Amino acid sequence: MTDIRISDLPVEAGFGDYVQLLKPRVMSLVVFTALVGLLVAPVPVHPFVAIVSILFIALGAGASGALNMWWDADIDGLMQRTRNRPVPSGRVQPGEALGVGMALSGISIVMLALTANFVAAGLLAFTIFFYAVVYSMWLKRLTPQNIVIGGAAGAFPPMIGWAVATGGVSVESALMFAIVFMWTPPHFWALALFMKTDYSDAQVPMLTVTHGRKSTRTHILVYTILLAPVGIAAAFTSIGGPFTLAAAILLNGWFLIGAWRIWQRDEVQAEADKYAVEKAVFRFSLYYLFLHFAAFLVEAALRPYGYGGW
Fold it and tell me: Cα-flanking dihedrals φ and ψ of residue 309, to 5°?
């Protein structure tokens, strides 16, 4: 880590700054997908155990966010999208971010082991390690495939939720993992296209910087094509059914149309309408993941009434 741009002026951190340190937007996605994994599992979980387990999974996600902000303070200060984060802005000192991240990591892992089981706790520990070390410290500044491999960290929560209920992993939890894993690259590459020079300014080897914007558009299309059969396949497992299949077909079809439109465009067209298509596909990608996992919940809710499933 070099050339960290942190204000030399003493700034007192508020409660909201420490909340931001935990990346609440990312945490909300983690909580939702982990909760879905827990609720659609075939083993019922006591409500108290479920609530407490999700709380500790959320704390683990927050720990990952804090460790990421500690390590990435230098490049965060160079990018318009991240320069106002608590550490590069000087509101939270790097040592504080590291301390919060380490403390929450230990608490979340130990308490999840005591509340649920060691398999779930082990998966949570590996997720934190993968995001903080493998992705943030190693891959992010090394390879344009950073977001592809690093996306695994964000894909583990539904598998952790499933493990809370069942004490293991399965085809179903692996497919939920795969949906998030395959969704991550086109989601972030769409963002990279309209964030312009952020990643090049910070010298982060995002695909737009190393391989060009046309190649990035092609990669978005390819990964969206690969995502579709994964999402549809999950509909034919024990967590799926006709409703999930219909949702998967509609969502993946719409995503494919968006990716195709991105692939067809060049930078002149994109500049002309201020990257309207790229921004629209990025926004849809957020709804895509939420609705895909919500379909699993609907399917599970319908089963007691004789609907859903195969």
Answer: 70, 180
